[in-house]
Predict the 3D structure of the following.
Amino acid sequence: MSLKISSFEEYERVYKQSVEQPEQFWDGIADTFLWKKKWDKTLEWNFKEPNVKWFQGAKLNITENCLDRHLEKSGDKPAIIWEPNDPNDDHRVLTYRQLHDKVCQFANVLKNNGVKKGDRICIYMPMVPELAIAVLACARIGAIHSVVFGGFSAQSIADRILDATCSLVITADGGFRGAKDIPLKTVIDDALVQCPSVKKVIVLTRSRTAVSMIKGRDVWWEDEVKKVETQGNLTFAAEEMDAEDMLFILYTSGSTGKPKGVVHTCGGYMVYAGYTFANVFQYNPGEVYFCTADIGWITGHSYIVYGPLSQGATTLMFEGIPTYPDAGRFWDVVDKHKVNILYTAPTAIRSLMSFGDDMLRGKDLSTLTKLGSVGEPINEEAWHWFDEKIGHGHCPIVDTWWQTETGGIMISPIAGVTKTKPSFATLPLPGIQPLLVDENGKEITGNGVSGNLCIKFPWPGMIRTTYGDHERCRTAYFATYENLYFTGDGCLRDEDGYYRITGRVDDVLNVSGHRIGTAEVENAINMHSSVVESAVVGYPHDIKGQGVYAFVVCPEKHGDDELTRKDIAMTVTRIIGAIARPDKIQFVSGLPKTRSGKIMRRILRKIAEGETSNLGDTSTLLDPNVVEEIKSGAL
Ligand code: WT7
């Protein structure tokens, strides 16, 4: 069986088969990968506990699929093209053979530093090839990586390290993002004050900023690699992993205060990332593929590293930001490296669109054949701009809906196969069985309907557990509706049966494609000494999709309102990271609450959205007057 579907008739046929005989369908997909031993049982599952096991009995190492198996035919093909933050610096190309060798070398470094199969390793690095190498070296040795995005604060890192009891951290002295230098090692030092489990820190030289190296704990990446070279340890036999062994943990926000460690396992995740990459992007050998995400998010895990490399693709890694040195940078990168496939986020599209079409002048985008969007609903205006100005009307746009928990793309056009429709993620990939339910969990059938999006049958890339707390996984995803995986998203299915994701229906915000729990932001705001209480909601933001609006009860301010706002914003940056910083802070004398003390978020959301005329029933409020005050003070 071939991995790629190439016509809509084939899609319909394969989709039907995947629902009627899911195990046979996935057997065929999994057969296209390299296994040390094949599975005894394709699937065992129930969504009650939940217990989901794919390819039981199988043995594999994902890095053999991403590296070794390409060496014979494609050893000299570029695996990673790296474009630095500063366009005047040299770019780098790593062939499959070079990447393989560096991964083996670094796996030896990890081994020399005491890392064993099953250990948890925290990775906090800039977008340089060594980040991909670190990730793959963990997978090679069977260690579980937990990559933390470079924008998170010391406190957020510490929380994640403690939750997973990581024994080693891989970082860099610093990183470049646009005009900024990010002092990564200093942030790690601050985090590690709280983390006794961490025995070693490996530090890559990138920014040459001053760092303090703690004796016995901190070592330089380059020195460790030299040791391995002197020892002559240039190969590394890939650890044999069970299909259901953990591959990685990635933390993501939910409706409670603490991020959850989403766990993905070796076999199923590999199959799902590779299958979806090959199909959605219809990747052809030789094409240059550029995903603009950071490896600190699931998009980077699945569609910069594992998906593309498992398919022998050339994946472009970009260190910088879309607006540095100017808002034409993405187009320069496309032009310079003759990019064929561009996968980016609506927030980036909207931001670049706002700089005007002048930024496109003189950039050769003619190599582009396929475009992709991910992370949040894409509005029609941005979709059309992307289509016309970037794709010149001839590149299919794949609007890919998925989540950290799903491991890979779930609902999306298949490029050139599925008819696209602006702002629609269109149809489920074969193997994926979505359904819409009402408030009570009753399925809403037929077309031209909306409801809450659930999935009724397992797929290989799905979340297995939340690290260290299986009950949390059950309550967050499998307890809302019986026997269903609940996504947390609202969704419309139009007359053609096409799906359009309308956004979260829980207390989770999507700010610039990043998931932020309102409870998490509230906790951070409440840590400020002058704050008594707060409530955070989202509001429509032209560029970010959603902005963070905080209603804060703060009766005794130190200094004026503006200063206190800055202090509160700084507190959130310190506790979580700049991505969660409130865009608007409104001081209020109290929050609208029901008599039982529940904050009426519905009312706050409406006020934040600027819709003050129709607030619905406020008679159940403890103090209806507070609403008038909040309305009149709205920002
Ligand atoms: C949430 C997942 C999937 C990788 C990036 C985000 C929203 C994601 C789309 C899309 C509309 C989308 C959903 C989802 N989302 N893709 N194409 N259209 N909404 O991963 O941080 O796990 O967030 O992002 O609300 O639940 P994440």
